[in-house]
Amino acid sequence: MATKFCGCQTFDVDKFEKEKQLREIGSQAVWSLSSCKIGFGIENLLDSNTSSFWQSDDATPHYINIQFKRKMYISDVCIYMDFKNDESYTPNKMSIRAGSHFHDLLEVELVELAEPNGWLYIPLRDRHDKMVKTFMLQIVIISNHQNGKDTHLRQIRVHTPNTQVELNPNNPVITQNFSSVDMKQFSIR
């Protein structure tokens, strides 16, 4: 199930999230890397700054593991890359895998890139064309442009549909005047 991309689209990912009613859920996960250079770790992938980057520190393949406490619906992954600045550090072949844990991961998408510059949008669907529901995602950088050894990724965003909970003011549970501090957060009075 290879998906080929000639490059990446330049788009405003924040605007994209609002238009598609998506919620970024990376902060709800535990992230781990196969390797990183000191000062270029996971925090650089999640800091919303496209000038910073994660840099691996080992031979390919490189792994980014994203583990959730509960099964999550994942609609897509957006990855920011900058071939103009990163050149041979830029991935040209990546695999996106999903599963319950490290031992049952299955490939959901295989992505081949040609000099990507900007945000790469990767929709995730299972074999029945339904949104992936998983405990774990793994992004594998299989190879880089110009046979580069280490890799740079600048940002990663993991999205789920933004489901709205409708509050019914006639519901006696919601409109109760709770007395405990823990329960007052659920009162709409």
TrEMBL record:
One Pfam family here: ANAPC10
PANTHER family associated with the record: ANAPHASE-PROMOTING COMPLEX 10, ANAPHASE-PROMOTING COMPLEX SUBUNIT 10
All residue ranges annotated as the DOC domain in the record: 1-185
SUPFAM superfamilies given in the database record: Galactose-binding domain-like (SSF49785)
Record's protein name: Anaphase-promoting complex subunit 10
Family, similarity comment: Belongs to the APC10 family.
Keywords associated with the record: Cell cycle, Cell division, Mitosis, Ubl conjugation pathway
Function description: Component of the anaphase promoting complex/cyclosome (APC/C), a cell cycle-regulated E3 ubiquitin-protein ligase complex that controls progression through mitosis and the G1 phase of the cell cycle.
